[in-house]
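User: Can you recover a sequence for this backbone? Please restate the input before giving your answer.

Assistant: Of course. Working from this structure:
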């Protein structure tokens, strides 16, 4: 099974893709990307859909403007741990 960290797509033939379509879909669901080629040309890219979501830091910014809530003592430590593991945000160089 493919790892989610695979960044480069795997190139396979259209014949191979059709013969193992279910397996290819399973691997795409696990994060794998494919380039399908036929007669020497790439004709299709298969990849997981882009999922829109909020980063933990964005959630905290939204919560900052709300009424304070008292939580158990370990919550803050858990949240700081999650934020520490969050990868740096990748934004386009043109600042959009």
């Amino acid at each position: 099974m493919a790892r989610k960290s695979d960044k480069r797509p795997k190139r396979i033939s259209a014949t191979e893709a059709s013969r193992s379509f279910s397996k290819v879909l399973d691997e795409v669901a696990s994060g794998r990307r494919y380039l399908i080629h036929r007669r020497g040309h790439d004709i299709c890219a298969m990849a997981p859909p882009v999922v829109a979501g909020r980063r933990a830091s964005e959630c905290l910014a939204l919560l900052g403007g709300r009424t304070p809530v008292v939580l158990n003592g370990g919550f803050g430590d858990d949240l700081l741990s999650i934020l520490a593991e969050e990868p740096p945000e990748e934004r386009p160089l043109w600042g959009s």
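That completes the design. The radius of gyration is 20 Å.
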